[in-house]
Amino acid sequence: MDSSKYVAFDVHCATIVAAVHNAAGRCVMESVIETKAKTVRDFIKGISGRVHVTFEQGTQAAWLYDLIKPLAAEVVVCNPQHNKLVCGAGNKSDRIDANKLAMLLRQGGLKAVYQGEASTRSLKEHVSNYEALVADSVRVMNRIKGLFRARAIPTVGSSVYQPSQRTGWLNQLKDSAVRMRAESLYRQMDCLKDLRKEARTAMLAEARKHKASRILRRVPSLGPVLVAQIIGTVATPHRFRTKRQFWAYCGLAVVTRSSADYEFANGRLRKKARAASTRGLNRNYSRRLKSVFKSAALIGMQYDPFQKVYAALIAKGMRPELARLTLARKIAAVTLSLWKREEKFDPKRLLQKVPTARRKRN
């Protein structure tokens, strides 16, 4: 007799609503426990048989995954967007949600969210810290410019941020309260600038500990910051069987739609020659990686060897925005391939198809 138990958690800040189903799909236990490490461990240890656990990706997901992983046979952190489509109908409550998750776990109907490798957790935290400080810095800088623009004082360029010219800019503010606010924003900017430098140094030092850093740094247009972001997000390239899966994760996959694909001709079934219509790029993706490879494409457009790839695409008659997308996909594919095979970047292999693309136009 199968002794497996399927446990689903509906996780909140203070409490967790748990539902336990047996192998036959019957609910054998429902409970509400505190969101504390000891309470969760005791609850899992108290369940007999082979324990499978699931909960949705959220704020506590990484902490809960590390906590439960040594205690259960399987831990599935599932995609809440996918669950919304599957479980959206009918009434909703914490108890109902937990039971639906347990049912889907038993049926194998959940879409898992990758939780990363333990070896890259530290780098992931450094990358998140650096990106948050960059975003905060940009926000404060925009507020400084906005303060001057609101008083019809032009702020073209970056001179408004320079410490050597700060007194001149402050002297243009006649209101004492406005001047005090500007001084406060300048102090925030200076503090964030120092913190951002420290975070960048720590992030790059952590990235250099990984073998992948030496491989990816050889790819033109991928600087040290972009490489750190890639490693901290992807963790391992073996998550992706093909480049098309990686493109989808990076938000670079083209979504197509087709209908009535087949027809009968002379009594034989055949597929219609009509091409599928495109519907833009996929919407469920890593925002960080899409930004990384879009940035890499913008850099690659200006320097060899990717500049030649971009020029060949334009020569074929491709629109510039589509050529940039194609170049970003090319850089992503090269990155995945080199990382998987642990090979050095070879520009000759990259440019093998460029002459062919040019000849097609002639």
How would you describe this structure to a colleague?
52% of the residues lie in helices and 14% in strands. The chain folds into 3 domains: 5-107, Nucleotidyltransferase, domain 5 (2-Layer Sandwich); 122-209; 212-361, no CATH class. It is built from 15 helices and 9 strands. Helix 10 (243-249) packs across helix 13 and helix 11 (287-300) packs across helix 13. The longest helix is centred in the middle third of the chain and has 32 residues, at 176-207. It has a 5-stranded mixed sheet with strand order 3-2-1-4-5, with helices on both faces. A two-stranded antiparallel sheet has the order 6-9.
What would the keywords be for this entry?
362 residues; Nucleotidyltransferase, domain 5; 5-stranded mixed β-sheet; 15 helices; single chain; alpha/beta; disordered C terminus; 52% helix; two-stranded antiparallel sheet
Brief write-up:
The protein has 362 residues and is α/β, with parallel strands linked by helices. Helices cover 52% and strands 14% of the residues.
Count the helices. How many? 15
Mean residue pLDDT: 91
How widely separated are the two ends? 71 Å
What is the element string, with H for helices and E for strands? EEEHEHEHHHHHHHHEEEEHHHHH
Assembly category: single chain
Largest sheet: 5 strands, mixed
Residue share in helices?
A: 40-55%
| Broad shape | globular
